[in-house]
Amino acid sequence: xxxxxxxxIAAEENSEGGQFCKDWANLMRRNMNLVKREDTxxxxxxxxxxxxxxxxxYYAYTRTLADVAVLHAVVQAEKDGFDxxxxxxxxxxxVRQIRQAVNIPYVAYTEATMLAxxxxxxxxxxxxxxxxxxxxxxxxxxxxxxxxxAVPIRIIEETTKEVEGSVYDVHQGxxxxxxxxxxxxxxxxxxxINPCCMCSASLRLAPGAEKEYPNxxxxxxxxxxxxxxxxxxxxxxxxxxxxxxxSPWISRKVYYARPTPEALGEAKMLVEYDGxxxxxx
Length: 281
What we know:
Blueprint: E1 2-6, H1 16-33, E2 41-47, H2 60-79, E3 84-87, H3 95-101, E4 106-108, H4 109-117, E5 124-125, E6 127-128, H5 131-143, E7 154-155, H6 160-165, H7 174-186, E8 191-192, H8 197-205, E9 219-220, E10 223-224, H9 228-244, H10 261-266, H11 268-271, E11 278-280
Parallel strand pairs: 1-2, 1-3, 3-4, 5-8, 6-7
Antiparallel strand pairs: 2-11, 9-10
């Protein structure tokens, strides 16, 4: 089974930003390897064009401009023979559009983790890194019909430098996460979801603090912290298994209907454009 993990942050491969992306991908790979099937191959795909830092992801304007690269990356992944694609961005870019475009499972971060959270506890707690993200993530949760399964979203007092630094040292943000986690628990959260995949992998593996946390940071005051990368990977593996077994895995009735040949013909100039390129690690 081959799974393509698509990123929202872009960089040139042989650049300082590209090296950070490789380090980030390595951390995510180590996290996913904790639960990955032996026959599953993981490839991390980065766009050459898009936003190059966490700050730009906080604004709908700049994020929407970049999200099209995620769509092109998944479309190309299907052409390249991958069995499924995952996007690690918690804004869940182009879920409906991508599922209409391809015939391989596409797993979105917030959708998958929120659905898993309903099996782990009555209400989930999510910390986000900026005020606008409160609205964006709440809109996603509402769209998935899960408003009643989450406590109000809270803002974590963590700088983007600390977010990116957590890839190398969990101390960069653990204090801020524990503080907001306890506030969410006081609100009634029974499971904690870290929407930032960088921070989630850092908590699970505790880079730079392995002696203090040999098994990672998996709970706060007895409340579990979801292994979000493990969840989205297992969700992708499950959907591929269903598809390969010949079982129904998606409805093409209306919402995820594939475009007709006539529609594709009229959109020929659009669908034949394949973006500005990618690189894998």
